[in-house]
Request: fold
Amino acid sequence: MSSAAAFAVVKRAAQLICTTPQFDALAKEVSTALKLPAAARAKLRAELDGLVASLYALTESEFAHILTTFALVAEGVKAAALEAYRTVAKGELK
Reply:
């Protein structure tokens, strides 16, 4: 994993984790804001899913299949993750 890819994952994970003051130090370390709006958190989750699928070198077909196995996950969430994967594959998400 490149350091840029690792930072992309760490940054987004920190943004999702940093929801209370106890995580202020982590938030500062990765330059993130606390308490993101729900829509921003959903976008970050989709981006994380896309980045991780790419890091595991999954094909789009493999990732799409994996997403179908999560019966309790809303279709919109799965579609956003797949779209984020496509964005990563095009080199547009860093």
User: Anything to note?
Assistant: The chain has one domain: 3-89. Helices lie at 3-17, 24-29, 38-55, 60-68, 75-89. The chain is about 65% helix and 0% strand. The two ends are 13 Å apart (CA to CA).
